[in-house]
Amino acid sequence: MHDDQHGTAIAVLAGLLNACRVTGKEFEDLKIVVSGAGAAGYAVSRLLRCIGYNRDICTSVKEMIVCDRQGIIDRQRQGLYNNKYKFILADETNHTGREGTLSDALEGADVFVGVSAPGILTGDMIRLMNDDPIVFAMANPVPEIMPDEAKRAGAAIVATGRSDFANQINNALVFPGVFRGALDAHATKISDEMKIAAAHALANYVRRPTREHIIPRVLDREVTISIAEAVWASAVKWGYARRV
After folding, report:
1. What span, in angstroms and rounded, lies between the C-alpha atoms of 145 and 139?
2. 43 touches 8 (CB < 8 A)
3. What is the helix (H) or strand (E) element at residue 63, kind and residue range?
C-alpha cells in the first residue's frame, strides 16, 4: 500500500459517499471524470470503478472517463499499449468510446476528480456537467480550479487537497488509521476489503455531512481510531488477522 495512491483513493471514495448524501445523488449512478492517470489517478479509478476488486465488496460507479495530458484515454489511441496501466484504464473505462479533450469528457458528468495539474478546469467546463456537479480539485498547491470559481460556475460541492479550504481530501486522513488497524490485527496484508472498510469508516465519521463538511479534519485524532477499528475488524472478518 502507498499512501499517495491508495490513501488518496480511500479519501476520495469517502468524500464521494458523503457528497452523494448531501446532493441526493446515487453513488451507483455517478458519471465520473478523473483528470490524471498517474499513480494517484490510477488508484482512484481502480477503486471507484472496482477494477480488480471483488464486486461482492466493492460498489462501482456507473461510468468513468480518465484523462491525461493528451485528453481522453480510449481504446483507439495510438501508442496506448506501451503503458500497461493506461491500457487497463482504457479497457475498464470509457465504454461509450468518447474521444477528445477534458472538456469533451465532462459533458454530462456528475463528478470531476482532479489529481493532475493547476488551472486546467474552467467554469465553462463545469457548466457542461449535470446539475449539482461535484468537483474534487486536488492538485497541490494550486488546484485544477479555485473553489470560489467552481462555485460560481454551479458546483454544488467543492473539495481540494488544501487545508485552507473546506473539504480537504488528504491521504493523511487515511494511512495512520489503516496501518494502526493492520498492525493491531497483525495482518498478513492490507487487503481490498480493509481499504473499503477504511473508506466507509471515514465517511461515517461525519454524522451530518454538509456542502462545506463532507470529510473530517486532518488533525482530528479520533479519525485514526475510527479507521483503525474498522480495518482491524475487516482483517479479522476476512481472515487476514493473526491476532483477534
Report:
1. 9
2. yes
3. strand 63-68
